[in-house]
Known about the structure:
mainly beta
Amino acid sequence: MKYVLFCIALMFVINELLFSQTKDSINIIPIKKHGHFSNITEVGGLFGFGNISYKSSIENTSFKNKNSNKFVSVTTINGYQFNRNFFLGIGIGIECPENIINMPIFADIRIDLLKKKVTPFLDFGVGYAVRAANIKQKPYFQKGDVITNTQIGIKINIVNHFSWILGLGYRFQYNRQIIKFTDTYGLLIGTGPVETFSNYLILKTGFVF
Length: 209
């Protein structure tokens, strides 16, 4: 639990630094009639499903493990709401499975389907998740994951430029590592790439400012 609290606190510090720069930009750049800078802050979870597939060119190795991973996720996105329907931004996040911290950095596109107080929305994101592992022991950095997110949800406008959102979505992750292969006697067979493919269900809620 202390790692989750640490991740959330760190996320708010990052958000304050990023969003304060956005506020400064607002004082310089003229805002169009229907456009404004906006921040989306979300918290939720990622729940692995299906299998994690591993493939390697060494002896054509291929195997699968059940994906039971669960992530606590906090993300903040700063961008521009061009009109009542279209938002484009850049996001950063903290995801905290046990003993691991993922830091996704991604581009995000959101489309409100209706020009009403309550509207469904679509969300598309693509980016890269930097990974640090073994927090309890000696931290070290691993090669991260390429990530794609697709989400559908509902957005309720509470007051001008302030809304509550709830979304359900899907994430695909791809990872490629160079590792050493050994036989049952510990002798080196070879070194080669291992590709990993995994799938996650996303459930998030948050606010749009």
